[in-house]
Each structure stands twice: as structure tokens, then as C-alpha cells.
Sequence to fold (340 residues):
Amino acid sequence: MYGYDFELGPIRPPSEADSILLRVTRNCPWNKCDFCGVYKGEKFSLREVDEIKRDIDAMKRAGITGSSAFLQDANSIILKPDKLAEVLVYFRQQFPTVKRVTSYGRADTLSRISPENLKMLKEAGLDRIHSGYETGSDRILKSINKGCTKQQEIEGGLKVREAGLELSMYFMPGVGGKEYSEENSEETADVINRVNPDFVRLRTFVAKPGTPMGDRVTDNSFVPCTDEEKVYEIRDMIKKLEGCTGTLVSDHIVNLLERVEGHMTLDRDRMLGAVSEFESLEPLNKRRFQLARRMGFVRSPRDVFRLPDNVLLQITKIAGKEYTPEEWEELMNYFLEKYI
Fold:
């Protein structure tokens, strides 16, 4: 309850940081993805419409404001369309100045919702759906226990777009490991080309300790890509995009190169140039940037030399030590684990 007379769920997309958070469902109905530990041990449940309306009233009394809203938790689009539409209409009535309402939606759920019901949700006040596709590869989807197929991603995405809703899909560079890195970039690009989502948001894969994926890294049954290899996987995916009109977004600290974002066609050369700039760095400069980025000090390689002298000296001292490739990746993951 967080000190208020309404519920709040545990997470929301980074792009919804300033949004009003309205909890429509509790936890995740699938809750089996091997890379995710957010809802493990928690029971999924649907909230009743009257209960949600009481929360809306409580939020209004508390003076909650914002220009956008996000429906929590992991797959709120699973609520029966007529009930979700009723919630949306009521929320819009109570918060008439909100310009955008968004929700998470799993690809398998979206593929089962009729086009008519998605259009009804659009008319009721839903504007955007965030969907964690992670990869376009059926092999990798199965290996991470995502619970959906490439075909469902395509069908669900096309339905969302045809209903007039914005689609924000998420791609995990590195989630296939070294073995399927090429397949991850190629198959994901194919899905993007066929769906043409409004946004593709990068969420560089990091194996979270305590999850099944983390356990696979520990027992060596999954060989992760290096920090650098994940960047090149993004590059290869961008090269395979054709005629896409949406935006590639790098809005999370786990992404090494924040500047690899923009219109997927018009800004392609600039984005690939940002990768080339990183790739061409001298080994020490490359490590200095990686370390400074993973410690949260910089946003691009150029920022490294704008650091205070004492900070740059300390980063140079750490980056200049002798490391095996495995030791260097362990150091990067040590810092990355703070953000997942």
C-alpha cells in the first residue's frame, strides 16, 4: 500500500518513470521466464473493476497528477476487454488531463485478443502497449521459457498496430548467448521488419543471480556474450532492418551505448557510426569507457575525458590492470548486477 489508500505494483518501464501507476492486475500470469526474478514466489490475480475504481478515487483524493499513466502489473491486457475498457473510461473521466495511457501485454495474450476488442480498448483510452518480445528466435524463446512463439509475436504485434495502438517492443541483445548471437539479431530483425513497431527498446541481457539463467551461467551450460559482443549484436540487427518507420530506443543503463538510438531508417548511419566509434577505440580507452559507463559516470565514450581528474585517474588505474577476458567480464557484470 506504500502509505496510500491504493495499491502499487513493483515495476514499470523506464519510459513510464513519471507516469501515474494504476494497478489493474497483481504480478504475472506466466511468471516462468528464466531470466526474470521479479514475481517469483508471488501469486497472480485479477483485480475487480470496483476495487480498481476505488484506487482511482483514492489517487485523485491524494492529489496524484501526471500527463501519462501506466497500468500495472506484468500483463494487464489479460483483464477481460469489457472490464479493462470500463476501467479506462473511468480513469480518463477522473484524470482528463492525462494524454497517454499504456500497459504491458505479453505477445501470446495479444495474439489471442480479437482486433475488435483491441480497437475497443483504443477507443476507451488505451494508447500504447509495451511488450517484452526479447528475441525473434523460436529456439531462444523456448530456451528462456518465454511462453510464446515468433508467430505469436508477429500476429500480436500486427493486431496492435492495426487497432491504432502504439507498440513498444523490447529486444534483449545477448539473451541467446554466444551460441545463438547471430540468430538472435537476425530473427529479431525479421520480426521488427514484419511488424514495424513504433518503438524497439533495447534491454541488454544480463544474467541475474538466483534466476534459472543465472544458474546456467554458473554451471557453464550457458555461455554469455561479452559486453562488447552484445553491442555488435545490436549493430548486426540494425543492419538487417528494412523500411522500418519506428524508433530504436536505448533508455536503460544496462545498454553500453546510449547514443545508439533514433529513427530506424533515417538515423541508421548515425547509429551504426556510434558503434563504429566504440569499436575503433584503443584497448585502454575502450576499457576506460566500459568501466566508467558501468559505474554510471558517463553516457558516451566522449564523456570519459570530461570526468574530473581524480575520477579519470582512478578509472584508468582499474582499467589498466592485467585481466583475463573472463576476469574483465566478471568485473563488468559486478557493476551491471546493480541495475537488474
